[in-house]
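Open question from group meeting: does this chain pack into something compact, or does most of it stay loose? Before anyone orders reagents, we agreed to write out a predicted structure and look at it together. Recording both the input and the output here so the notebook holds the full record.
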Amino acid sequence: MAGIRSGYPGSVVMNSLKTKSFHLISAGLLKGEPGLKIYEKNVPVKKQFRKIAFRGDVPVGMAFYNCPEEAGLFVNLIKKGMPLPVNPEKVVSGDVSISDIMKPL
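Structure tokens returned:
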């Protein structure tokens, strides 16, 4: 529109489903892609599940079940193609807070 050619980076598929008993948020790629590293953790005591897909150190997909407070940050990292500055295993385990993730950003 401004007279400069630029590539379209594409969009990120996102879904959110909230009911009285659960809240599921997903975005990006989660399966079927070669070269993706998947981290996931089920915490039955809290009725939570986290799954994050990475290409290198950049998150490209996520699904969070009953932990929606972290979803917005990850959707933003996925859209911008920004690397995750903390250990992904700690994120899916729930051992890292949002402020820990944002400090290095």
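Observations to bring back to the group:
The domain at 14-102 is CATH 3.30.390.30 (Enolase-like; domain 1).
Strands lie at 14-18, 23-28, 37-43, 48-55, 58-65.
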